[in-house]
Amino acid sequence: MAKPVMKLTAGSLPLKSCPSSGRQQHHLGSLRREMATPTQHGRASRHAVNRVAQVHRTVIEVEEHANNPITDFTRGMGTQHSKSVSSGAAGTTRKQQLQQVDVLRNMGISRHFAAEIKCILDMTYSCWLQRDDEIMLDVETCAMAFRILRMNGYNVSSDELYHVAEASWFHTSLEGYLNDTRSLLELHKASKVSISEEESILDSIGSWSGCLLKEQLRSGALHRTPLIREVEHALECPFYATLDRLEHRRNIENFDFTLTGHQVLKASYLSCYTNNEILALGVRDFSASQFTYQEELRHLDSWVKESRLDQLPFARQKLAYFYLSAAGTIFTPELSDARILWAKNGVLTTVVDDFFDVGGSTEELENLVALVEMWDEHHKLDFYSEQVEIVFSAIYTSVNELGAHASLLQDRDVTKHLVEIWVDLLRSMMTEVEWRISKYVPTAEEYLTNAALTFALGPIVLPALYFVGPKISESVVKDPEYNELFRLMSTCGRLLNDVQTYEREYEEGKVNSVSLLVLQNGGSMSIQEARREIQKPIDTCRRDLLSLVLRKEGAVPRPCKELFWKMCKVCYFFYSRGDAFSSPEEKAREVDAVVNLPLQLKGSNASLLHVVL
């Protein structure tokens, strides 16, 4: 039988001839023309972007009901070939299935295969519980299964990796694996998904596998092998310190290497589809999203100017950074509102932070706090200065607009909650000002309780929860789990910030956790020792947060929990190598990589761009 022709649409999903696909292709073609003209003139319409998201949703609906290649392909992964998937027959192994799941996730297209991936993971979990030899006796498969199952919310214990906890046992029992870089790499990745400081097995695996991988790099054992790039990347950038969309781009552009390393598409039930077709889907998905990102960034740039925020001489202009953090993590087309809110409030919190740090007098700061506390009755107060008027008006207008939209989505008024978030932030910032003026030195506990709020993630993350799909009742907002998720995320971010910015803050007369720790030890502890000591609570907060996010029980819906984790990753990404706002040239390149620059495929894959785009 001839293989069906895969047609790639502007919505990034292939469609086969079906009763609705002709109309859909016509609609997509008109959309591409609509977006092309404004782009050429530098002013793509917001209506066109909304239609992009609508088309993505429509195409997904068509996939679910039509007989088309993407449905055939995913059915081949799970449903139609369930017997071979279940039994591992016909050359299909658990390792291959897990590698397939990993590649789809790494390319940013796993959401199109959600049902099929769940089928594979459910069966893998069943085998895990039965301690199936196919998983447990192969180091690479065991480590990969543990990592993927845990990150997808399955209850797997790290105790199952006890047999490789020590390098000496690994060497004497499976000495051939010491030269198996792929197994070492999978073990190292698995060690990073720790959810408790009591998982000493993962700590041990992470330590010795990292040492062996570094030794392979130093010795030149990986020289001129495709795997060297992945090893270097895994050692330098643990998964919790990466932005998803940058990772997707990297994996798409290095797709040949992915296949060389995994051989994931060689399973017999996928043989009717070529690697190029999988790559084409990833390319189309990533490239189509860039149209949306470009328009959103133009909209945000206009908002900054309309709000006169660019006229404030003290304010850092970091819109692109915040949009990078939004598009880099909340990347799917339908979450445009969440990205825009995330970026707007990121800009506003930075402006307010700068106003409290260097831009405003005490009288101006007190005036701003009072205006926000009054909110709809702010007209009873005068603006102390034009700067106060600009800052307050930007907050007031944006919060009311976003609150009205969120209230429609949630079927209840949530604007009051958004205002309360801003009141809490400004009051905590005012507390820091009072400490600085009075030269009061808080205890470490006092400092961190307040500083977690002044890190200003509240106005960015908490309102965004209303825009990711689930209905959030008032009882959820008051639930201890909701507050703990926020506390862990904010504390982790604040401590990461403190470790990198203690010198600047010391010069500004501000205390932070590093300087407080040195002070409390009577000067016997050095700055570097204090920084290392603070890494411990950072690791604890990260692990506890991931544990809460992955736990199936709880009041907070999983899509909302994931936003807390995404922001934690953003904090690691921006602060793991220095101050968040340092290295402007590097950050500009990363913004371009997500938003503007076309994909650069290598070798024989380069010709695919002319066909797909």
What labels would you give this structure?
613 residues, Glycosyltransferase, Farnesyl Diphosphate Synthase, two-stranded antiparallel ribbon, 2 strands, globular, disordered N terminus
Structure description:
It is a single chain. By secondary structure, the chain is mainly alpha-helical. The protein has 2 domains: 93-117 and 130-266, Glycosyltransferase (Alpha/alpha barrel); 307-577, Farnesyl Diphosphate Synthase. 67% of the residues lie in helices and 1% in strands. It contains 29 helices and 2 strands. The protein has helices at 21-41, 46-65, 69-77, 82-87, 94-106, 114-129, 133-136, 139-151, 167-173, 181-191, 200-219, 227-236, 244-253, 255-262, 275-306, 319-327, 336-359, 362-374, 386-410, 415-438, 444-454, 458-464, 474-477, 480-507, 513-520, 527-550, 558-575, 584-595, 608-612; strands spanning 7-8, 14-15. Strands 1-2 form a two-stranded antiparallel ribbon. The chain starts with 6 loop residues before the first strand and ends with a helix. The relative contact order is 0.08.
Portion of residues in beta strands equals under 5%
CATH class of the largest domain: Mainly Alpha
Tell me the total number of β-strands: 2
Quickly give the CATH architecture of the largest domain. Orthogonal Bundle
Assign a percent range to the helix content.
55-70%
Can you list the strand order of the major beta sheet? Answer: 1-2
> What's the CATH H-level superfamily name of the largest domain?
Farnesyl Diphosphate Synthase
Q: State the low-pLDDT regions, or none.
A: 1-90, 258-272
Number of domains: 2
The helix/strand class is mainly alpha
The end-to-end span amounts to 28 Å
| Radius of gyration of CA atoms, rounded to a whole number | 26 Å
Main pleated sheet: 2 strands, antiparallel
Family: Belongs to the terpene synthase family.
Cofactor: Mg(2+)
GO molecular function: magnesium ion binding; terpene synthase activity
Domain Terpene synthase metal-binding: 305-544
